[in-house]
Design goal:
Structural class: alpha+beta
Strand order of the largest sheet: 2-6-3-5-4-7
Distance between the termini: 17 Å
Helix content: 10-25%
Strand content: 15-25%
Length: 272
């Protein structure tokens, strides 16, 4: 059964806002000039193998630091990152990028009434704290699986670092934590020639265990993170209630007993 694609409404990257005609551009920094339009076009056509490494302390690539603080290879750089290293970490925890989206379908995890394509507006997947996870982290053995991937129903605690990937109009304060239940997958860039939010080709745990793999092309996403969470915002629980707009976060798997949602919630269309 094919996946029911979600209609995401993600904020564009800073470089896309500055140069709408470019699919991807190289990272920009206060101390390093931004790539010109011709280079931007070349990066769009051949992103593999052309990414750079750099510092992840705050704004852009900057100068290359030692191996413990250097960012992973990525096509772009976070606007303001608090995470360092490859994979990037903050206070001993792995870091991830986030976006928000709206999707009223059953999603890849089949959360809803089997046979129906849509769920009611007050269904728990729309009103609660749920998220889509990038393909290879959702199902490391079968990242191409568009229906009932193995990681459906798991929970992760996300905590803001005080950094942001590509928006600076509203930066979340550090230490804001919320547990999210995975009900969908994010496929942006998966299997495509250009990196994107969810184009990682190795799971986060392998990235952490083997940093040398994480440093390779496509070991992380377009901003150099080993994981990406696309947060359900059908009722503006992300942008309004939390005040989040694509913040940088730390993440870790947790028991779903800590999730603020119905404990009997299951995705009935997919076997447990």
């Amino acid at each position: 059964k094919s996946r029911l694609f979600c209609s995401a409404r993600r904020r564009p990257s800073q470089s896309q806002m500055r140069a709408p005609w470019a699919v991807l551009v190289l990272g920009f920094a206060v101390s390093v000039p931004t790539a010109d339009a011709e280079n931007d076009s070349n990066e769009s056509e051949d992103s593999e193998g052309s990414a750079s490494e750099g510092s992840a302390t705050h704004h852009g690539p900057g100068s290359l630091l030692n191996a413990s603080t250097a960012r992973c290879r990525s096509a772009e750089y976070p606007l303001s990152s608090k995470c360092v290293g490859c994979p990037p970490m903050y206070k001993g925890k792995l870091c991830a990028s986030t976006t928000w989206y709206e999707d009223r379908t059953l999603g890849s995890c089949g959360c809803g009434t089997p046979g129906d394509n849509w769920v009611d507006d007050d269904y728990w997947t729309l009103t609660g704290w749920t998220a889509a996870l990038n393909n290879v982290n959702l199902d490391p053995e079968h990242p191409e699986a568009g229906w009932c991937p193995s990681g459906c129903g798991r929970c992760y605690e996300l905590c803001t670092t005080g950094g942001t990937t590509n928006t600076d109009s509203r930066i979340a304060e550090p230490g804001q934590c919320k547990v999210f239940k995975i009900t969908n997958r994010c496929s942006d860039g998966w299997g495509q020639p250009r990196p994107d939010w969810c184009s990682q080709n190795i799971p986060w745990h392998e990235c952490a265990e083997h940093p040398e793999k994480c440093r390779q092309d496509r070991g992380t996403n377009m901003f150099g993170y080993s994981a990406h969470f696309d947060l359900q915002d059908a009722h503006r629980q992300i942008q309004v209630d939390l005040g989040w707009d694509n913040p940088e976060v730390t993440f870790e798997p947790v028991s779903c007993e800590t999730w603020e949602g119905p404990q009997d919630a299951v995705c009935t269309a997919c076997p447990s």
